[in-house]
């Protein structure tokens, strides 16, 4: 449960090495979050992330989690919830893929879709059910502005995020009145290891800026968070640009 100051006391991160998720965890720990679960594939990076957060005063556990192994999600995540209530679940796993390669290798494209969408549907439903059973909590879904409209440059990744975004919105509607909040986060280009070497897009941000928006959104119980906020207006306009013209835009 949240403490007397309204801050979440426990956090489960799906995608435990995500730079955005770890930046968010640091901010929440500074606001009195004391128990953190980092779920991801076993790796030195996951262990290092856990050690770093422990150094900030939190009790941190790691759990083996594979987004592609949907059959394991109910058991794996069920064990986490069996340890006690979770105030916030941050679903932060995903892959960008390589558009040019993925167009030539359909199974690589399928892996992007299965990670970003199918795996998220499975994990999201398991966590939503557990949050509903405990009667409170927030599910934060890291979507992307890329899901707002398909672009030639990244339509495989964008389509997977479009599916995730629609799923999360519908799940939020389904959970109305249960005490469980679903918050969809739509960042634009974020400077991370995953985007290193890619041409930087307008209105680019960093993990810390996204983390700040997530924490603010949780406090306000927002349903949708754009990062930066100006993207809401930009995408409202781009959504209605005729396709022949949209194809020629440098977006």
From TrEMBL:
Keyword match Oxidoreductase: yes
GO molecular-function terms, A-Z: oxidoreductase activity
SUPFAM superfamilies given in the database record: NAD(P)-binding Rossmann-fold domains
InterPro entries documented for this protein: NAD(P)-bd_dom_sf, Sc_DH/Rdtase_CS, SDR_fam
Record Gene3D superfamilies: NAD(P)-binding Rossmann-like Domain
EC number annotated for this UniProt entry: 1.1.1.333
Matches recorded under Pfam families: adh_short
Keywords: Oxidoreductase
Family: Belongs to the short-chain dehydrogenases/reductases (SDR) family.
Protein's name in the database: Decaprenylphospho-beta-D-erythro-pentofuranosid-2-ulose 2-reductase
Species annotation: Streptomyces pakalii
Taxonomic classification: Bacteria, Bacillati, Actinomycetota, Actinomycetes, Kitasatosporales
């Amino acid at each position: 449960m949240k403490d007397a100051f309204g801050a979440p006391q426990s956090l489960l991160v799906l995608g435990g090495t995500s730079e955005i998720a770890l930046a968010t965890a640091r901010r929440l720990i500074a606001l009195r979050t004391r128990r953190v679960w980092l779920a991801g594939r076993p790796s030195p990076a996951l262990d290092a992330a856990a050690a770093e957060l422990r150094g900030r005063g939190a009790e941190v556990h790691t759990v083996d989690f594979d987004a592609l192994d949907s059959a394991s999600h109910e058991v794996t995540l069920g064990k986490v919830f069996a340890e006690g209530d979770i105030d916030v679940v941050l679903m932060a796993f995903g892959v960008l893929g390589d558009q040019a390669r993925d167009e030539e290798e359909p199974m690589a494209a399928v892996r992007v879709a299965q990670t970003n969408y199918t795996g998220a549907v499975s994990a999201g439903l398991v966590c939503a059910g557990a949050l509903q059973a405990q009667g409170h909590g927030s599910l934060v879904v890291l979507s992307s502005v890329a899901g707002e409209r398909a672009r030639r440059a990244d339509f495989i990744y964008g389509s997977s995020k479009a599916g995730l975004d629609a799923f999360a919105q519908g799940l939020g509607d389904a959970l109305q009145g249960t005490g469980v909040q679903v918050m969809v986060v739509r960042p634009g280009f974020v400077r991370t290891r995953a985007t290193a070497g890619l041409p930087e897009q307008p209105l680019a941000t960093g993990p810390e800026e996204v983390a700040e928006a997530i924490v603010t959104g949780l406090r306000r119980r927002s349903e949708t968070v754009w990062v930066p906020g100006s993207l809401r207006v930009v995408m409202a306009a781009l959504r209605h640009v005729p396709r022949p013209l949209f194809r020629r835009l440098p977006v």
